[in-house]
Amino acid sequence: MPNPFLAKDVGFIRLCGHRGHNLTAPENTVAAFRAAHELGATSLEIDTVLSADQQIVVLHDLLLDRTTNGSGAAREMTAADIAALDAGSWFDPNFAGTRVPTLAETIALAHELDLVLEVEIKEKVDLEAYYEALALVLANPADRERVMMISFDHASLKAVKARIPGLRTGGIVHEQFPDPVAVARMSDLDELCIDLDVFDPADATALHQAGISIRCHAYKPRTWEMARRAGLGWDDTLPAWLRSGLIDTLSGDDVGWLRDFLAKAVS
C-alpha cells in the first residue's frame, strides 16, 4: 500500500499548515484547517491534549487560557465543556464562537478534504490515558492511514506505536545528529520532522534510503527575511532540496507563501 507521507508514493510534495493556517484564523481550529486547505495545504500539523473525560482535544497548551475564554487545565474540563468555550475571539472578534475541535472531528474533516494529519502529542500528565483514548479514536484503519503521530518525546512515540498496530510516528528534531537513521530506528519512527535550520541533504538521502519520510518545517516569511539578512542562503538551498526529492512535506505558518515558493522551486 502506498505511504501517504512519502512524496515518491503519492507523486507530490505535501504542503502542511502549522496549526492550520494560523495567520488568518485562530490556530488549531476548523476555521484554520479550512483556510489552510483553501490555500493549497494537503496536510495539517495539529496539537492534542486530553480532557477530563479522556477525550483527545485539539489544543496546543495544557492550559486553556491563551487560546480560549476559559481558564485552567484542559484535563480538568470535559470535552463538552471545552467545546462550549470561545476559541476565536482572542484572535479576532470575527471568530467569536469558534470551538476547540476534538481529534475525532478533525479526522472526519481530513477525510472530507482529503488531508493527512501530523498529530503532535502535547499531553504531559497522563500519557497512558492518552494512548488508550488514541487507540479508540484510531480504531478504524482508514483513520490510522491518514495520521502521523509526532512528538519531541521519541520514547513516547515508541510506546504508543507498540500499543496501536499500524500507527505511523514521526520524531520532531531541532538538532542535527551524527546518525539520524539510527535515531529514527531507535524509536521505530516512520518520519523525522526536521527544522529547516538544521536540515542536511546527506542526512535526508540516508533517511529516504531507510524508508523514512521527511517533513521540513520552513517557518514563515518574517523568519525568512531575517535569514536573508543573516546570509543563511535558504533561498538557494531549499529549492534545490525540493527539486532533488529530499523533502516529502514542507510545513509552515503561511500556507499561501509556501505554495508559491514550492511552485517556483519545482517549475
Automatic annotation (TrEMBL):
Looking up PROSITE patterns in the UniProt record yields: GP_PDE (PS51704)
InterPro entries per record: GP_PDE_dom, PLC-like_Pdiesterase_TIM-brl
Alphabetical GO biological process terms = lipid metabolic process
Q: Which PANTHER family match?
A: GLYCEROPHOSPHODIESTER PHOSPHODIESTERASE, GLYCEROPHOSPHORYL DIESTER PHOSPHODIESTERASE
Protein known as: GP-PDE domain-containing protein
Tell me any Pfam family this protein matches. Answer: GDPD
Give one GO term, molecular function aspect: phosphoric diester hydrolase activity
Q: Which residue ranges does the record assign to the GP-PDE domain?
A: 13-262
What organism is recorded for this protein?
A: Devosia insulae DS-56
